[in-house]
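Fold this complex.
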Amino acid sequence: MHEYAFFLGCIAPNRYPGCEAAAIKTSEKVGIKLLPLKGASCCPAPGAFGSIDLNVWYAMAARNVCLAEEMKKDITLICNGCYKSIYEVNHILKHNDDLKDRVNEVLAEIDMEFKGSQDVWHLAELYYDPKICGVQKIRDSVTTPLTGAKVAVHYGCHLMKPQKERHFGDTENPMWLEELVDALGCESVQYRNKMQCCGAGGGVRGYDITHSLDITNEKMINLQEVGADALTEVCPFCQLQFDRGQIEIQETFGVSYGLPILHYNELLGLAQGMSPQDLALDLHGIDCTPFLKKVL
Amino acid sequence: MAEKEEARVGVFICHCGTNIAGSIDIMDAVEYAKTIPNVAYADQYQYMCSTPGQGKIVEAIKEHNLTGIVVAACSPRLHEPTFRVATKEGGLNPFRFEMANIREQNSWVHMHDKESATAKAKDAIKIAVAKAALLEDLIPKSVPVEHAALVVGAGVGGIQASLDLASAGIKTYLIEKWPTVGGRMSQLDKTFPTLDCSQCILTPKMVDVGRHPNIELMTYCEIEKVEGYIGNFDITIRKKARGVLSPDEATARGIVGGGCNGCGDCAEVCPVIKPNPFEMGMAPRKAIYIYHAQVMPLLYTVDFDACVKCGLCVDACGDKKAIDLEMEDEFITLKIGTAIIATGYNLMPIENKREWGYKQFDNVITGLEFERLICASGPTGGHLIRPSDGETPKSVGFILCAGSRDNTGNGKPYCSRFCCMYSLKHAHQIMEKIPGTKVYLFYMDIRSFGKMYEEFYYRIQSEGAKFIRGRVANVLEDPQTRNLYVRAEDTLLGRPVEVECDLVVLAAAVQPVDEEDVIRKHFGVSKSQDGWMLEAHPKLNPCGTTTAGVFLAGVCQGPKDIPDTVAQAEGAASAASIPIHIGQVELEPYFAQCMEELCAGCGMCIDLCPYQALALVDRSDGSGRKVMSVTEAKCKGCGTCGGFCPGGAIKMQHFTSPQIHAQIDAFLCGGEQ
Amino acid sequence: MADEWNPKILAIICNWCSYAGADLAGGARIQYPSDVRTIRVMCTGRIDMLFIMKAFANGADGVLVSGCHFGDCHYLAGNFKAAKRMFMVKNVLKNLGLEDKRFRMTFVSASEGAKWATVISDVVKTVNELGPSPIAEFKK
Ligand code: FES
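Structure:
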């Protein structure tokens, strides 16, 4: 068992509790144990905090890392926004002693110190990493293969970019999530402009909802073009935008797509035999039944 | 100590204006220098390298009867030669000079800490004095220079350099890996900003190299091995099996009146079809081929990787008997005095930048492909078409800085320097050939720095090309129409734009040719940070390299357009001809020497020497035991043998063990007063 | 000198790459700590193990050897042959009970001025952390 401190984030537990349940249960089956990161705060959201006061962003994220340092465990998480904040701050502070000193001055007020001793991983990359889990282990853990469905993949910007501060290599046409999807028995499909933003991130959703929906709408058109049965992603915020966003698109533009949106963990949960109720799929904005009918 | 005479060292400290004096207390250092053992005289001056500064050295040698000189100033890589001359003028052997670097490695890097910079300078002077006290007279060896030169690469740079050398009366070997000379320039249609046809101005030069009596043209050849040193390089060339005999070669084989005359009958019957790399793979060629009609020399070449040896071509060739399908690679050795490297460039594999869709979408092409498509002698006869359906494009997008000025780690951080201009030229060519076509140039900055370039830029603007300042985020294809959507942020208007284009041309970044590293290492030339070859000095010696006798021309040293390449080629030719015309060069006398009384004849050093300069010979005392002996002309003075000799029997002149030990002692023992 | 200790660090570097790289750092005015003194040799291949041992015996707190990258040596492979010897130096130091971190071999090319500055800063930092060489202390 590889043990990690599990940073939950805000959107998953509040909007899509299924994601949280799925993450904990599915990871256990492939040899990853998620330990609760007690006392964690908001990551804090990179767009909302980072664009207003970087120092607050650094300090809060560093505090979350400190909690993991106390546990002597690396952090893992299931949200791209959290990844951006915590991974990036950890990375920046490790490489910038001046900044680290400044952040530590702030943290000293609550008797904490950022040491830079732990790393931060997205759960999806742990799934893909053959040293930790690997595609084969995922394939072996499947009890109900999701055959017969075409599933498109959305990576999300904060996961992959900025390229220089990530370690995924090709950020323009990555294929590793597809491999993970194919391992579940369904068929991953390619679509136009795969790497386009979901429309939500960086505060766009909060600032200009119509523009944000515009982007989502284009994404939906591209997905419809290739006949995807569902879209999977690794970020509850992207999920929120695609899922609730479709309802908003219908209200604003009058088009409806009805495309089920599932977090990769939810998909994995289904494949490992978890029931839709366990995954709280009924809380999704878009009805998942057509997809479920196809695969179960 | 090893010296019989008592060492009397003179120390001269340079202010270099405020370059040194700004961070180092010169007077303090002078006072300190006077206290160092063996120092007979110490002084300072504003600019030691100036005539009065050097005069001080000359005078002091005479007046104070000095045996060694130390100048504390800039880097010995800059002014060691200067001060050696001054030392010589004063009547000392020029090698009785040692430099303390207190500028590049001191005042410039410790600008804000005068105290420790001064302390460091004092130590540097002390170390230099310790060495100077032990320096010995050395006599440089003069070697004759072979009256021949080598030029590697027959693009426009290599061609120009060869013509210059040959016209100066020097036997010149021009070697090229392609079957023809001409290089990249021969692939171009027009040249900016004059718009004259590239082939028209290049072909006469190509013909000239072919018939110049002093030039020996060796196409389809590669460098196999380089040995020797300035004046006496031994070069081994691999003459790749061409499968076709030139008329001369045929005569040598006794085939009278035979050999290839370029008739092309062979290619007509050849059944194997391959893409022609000269046309960027957009036109076919046979397994026996020429690149294009104007090749120089006009000789067909067999591609033995593709050839099925059916023999049809041999029959078609008939009595000329020019084709030999059993030909094998040959090795030729050349003796030359100096060499010029002019290996040019490749385009970077722009498909790595997936966002622009090269190799995913048919209608995304590179600038070089565009040149072939618009060229009258190209695969389409000069009709610009889009690859997906052969239609004439009605709107064309150009993406500039494709992979250049790119710090993502997936591109090149440098500016490729000629893409702006050729893209402007492309824009002009389209608007001229296909009136009404819309042209969009997506740029970061337009760098039109050359003579008449800015004027050309204005001209293209006024002709109606649209300039959009913004780096392209991605290119998408409409699967039905195969049209492309180019997305960027217009940074002048501050808003995103999306333009529909029929054809997208990427001005891809350039990078060194694949073989560059191999060639570079053959000649011992260093590489700069960006991957191009490193010149000896970026400002004052842009053609030279750190290997004496090896020079650079053209893009292999860094991206350049045609005028700059030709200019540098002429510069390199002139530099390369100097030693040849003088007829001899002096080699630095840093040879290894064997101290027979210490040498046990173990022979460990023999294998360590990279130049086979060492051998075991019989001891001169007739004892029958062996000792090592050095062939001085082969020794380049690296000291690898001396660093290893277990008996300490090898004396590396000018870097002897006693000298280095003295330097170490000077730094670490009996220092601070 | 008892009040403040400044490390004594010796660098022996090759003329073609590291020395040129150090000059480049100067040209670019990249600032770095001033505790290192350099001795220039034509190639790292010239460096006898005894030079390094002598420096330590004389009380050096650290020694740095720097040359061209592998494959870039002006004399083909002098750095390679030197590197082999430098491993031996490390072993000898360990056997003598001296921290082998006090000795380091690096590869800095003629175009890596910035790298030279980082290397020096790093060496100085390491030696500062280790403190004065026990041999130097003993000699007092
Ligand atoms: S010349 Fe630099 S290591 Fe040999």
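Chain C touches chain B through 54 residues (CB under 8 Å).
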